[in-house]
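Re: the request from the purification team.
They wanted to know what the chain is likely to look like in 3D before they choose a buffer screen. I agreed to run a prediction and write the result into the notebook, where they can find it.
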Amino acid sequence: MAGLSSNAVSTYGVSTIREDLQDAYSMISSTEFPFQASIGSKDAKNTYVEWPVVELAAASTSNRVLEGENAPANDAATLALRMGNYLQISDKVAEVTFTSERIEGAAGNIQKMSKQVSLKLKELKRDIESMITLNVAANAGAAATARVSAGMLAHMISNTSRGAGAGANPILSGTTSGYISTAAVAGTARAATEALLKTIIAECWAEGANPSIVLVNAAGKQVISEDFTGVATRYKDAEDKKVVAAIDVYVSDFGELQIVPSRFFSSTDMLIYDPDYVRMLWLDPVKQKELARTGHAERRLIWGEYGLQVDNEKAHGVVADINWAL
């Protein structure tokens, strides 16, 4: 007698199931997934997406011409670079026995398919939040290899601070354009300092950017609150006299930045970014379908096909190779 499929929910061991789950995906606790919540999204038309990046010529200090000049020379054309990224597929599968679906009274009815789909949807969003910020190169994939979308940290090339030793920036597939073919290489771990953060903010500003968010993990949030600016405690409200030992907004010489902690972000990086210049790409928004039944159980597939578009990596920066305990 054949046994129950691996990881199927049974009696031994919500909400209505919708055919299109993208709305439900978007509504799931956005504050728990700060990177996805902060950036926009757009539809994709292919598994490899390209976008133009325009680089202006450097400011000239000698752009002076004669009055009445009769043969002005042409300047170099301002052309766009072609940047790109691959899209990847992530999924979850839920299986529930017919008996489990029929019974009533179990705590929270967690055994029912509707509840299992809801839980798998949350798990999928956790997976996506973790992956889209990774320092991982893009991969076109093959018949036996899943496509990989390069993560946010892998796009940090211009405004970077990396540890000594082997620390190296990511590499593009082309000389000045293409997709991220090689991820950043880790350098020697070092302590996080306010000076490092200020340097990257200044570099972003010099490139014409106005980053507004600093993304860190829990340890990073605590270190910034304790050690940065010298004003780690302040009154939350003059009326209730509560003192808050935290920094939620960092006021730099070039504007204010929110200090945002994430449960799903790298433990060794401090990402400084402008959410207006990065977005999610969706070739197949999150949805679900019923899989073929092979016995006394129902199976549901929840999946999405997506990637990351970094409009201009010079709008962002990173302080990498951090050991928050130092």
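For the purification team: Helices lie at 22-27, 34-38, 98-102, 113-131, 194-206, 218-227.
Please add any questions underneath this entry.
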